[in-house]
UniProtKB/TrEMBL annotation:
PROSITE patterns: TSP1. Keywords: Disulfide bond, Glycoprotein, Repeat, Signal. It comes from the Eukaryota. It comes from Ciona intestinalis (Transparent sea squirt). This is Spondin-like TSP1 domain-containing protein.
């Protein structure tokens, strides 16, 4: 072996065999010794990647990460692990839905009449348009309501005078009168009719 401790052997053979009572060869025909006892280099090895974790956001572009750890550390001059223990990627990169939103209502405009029941209106505008599948605005851009529902004052009005009646006497200073009727009764605080219904 080139490292980690091996053996190497050498051998010898009998050159002259013993005879006529001579001594046999002492020792072994082979000789073994340990060699290359230095440790073998072991390179670093990563474990397998874990699964990616959950994305940090549901839309709009987030991150998710996976990790790994050192399974075998380098020693005896082996190569260190290359790369990073964490790996990050972009996820859920589709834009997030944007829902429609209204501005606040404007002030009510002036009532179109001062009495008798009219209408007034107010308006609003869209502040944020719906995008990317967001929910659209519900409702209307304007609304109306009744206003100034109190009755309007109506002043009393007379009809025209009727013709004069016949004179009470044919001579000697008599009298005659004429009459008139109310054409429109006063209401809601209107002025009453001035004058009398009869004129003599």
């Amino acid at each position: 072996v080139s490292c980690g401790g091996g053996n190497q052997t050498r051998s010898r053979s009998v050159a002259i065999s013993a005879f006529c009572g001579g001594n046999s060869c002492a020792g072994d025909p082979t000789d073994t010794r340990v060699c290359n006892t230095q440790c073998c280099p072991v390179n670093c090895q990563w474990s397998s990647w874990t699964e990616f974790d959950s994305c940090s956001v549901s839309c709009g572009g987030g991150n998710q990460t996976r990790s790994r750890s050192v399974a075998i550390f380098a020693f005896c001059g082996g190569n260190s692990c290359a790369g990073d223990p964490r790996d990050t990627r972009v996820c859920n990169s589709l834009p997030c839905p944007i829902h429609c939103a209204w501005e606040s209502w404007a002030q009510w405009n002036e009532c179109n009449v001062t009495c008798g029941g009219g209408m007034q209106e107010r308006k609003r505008q869209v502040a944020v348009e719906a995008m990317h599948g967001g929910i659209g605005c519900s409702g209307f851009t304007s609304e109306s309501r009744s206003c100034n529902e109190i009755c309007c004052p109506v002043a009393c009005e007379w009809e025209g005078w009727a013709s004069w009646a016949e004179c009470s006497k044919s001579c000697g200073a008599g009298s005659q009168d004429r009459r008139r009727n109310v054409l429109v009764e006063e209401s809601c605080g209107g002025e009453t009719c001035a004058g009398n219904a009869t004129q003599v």
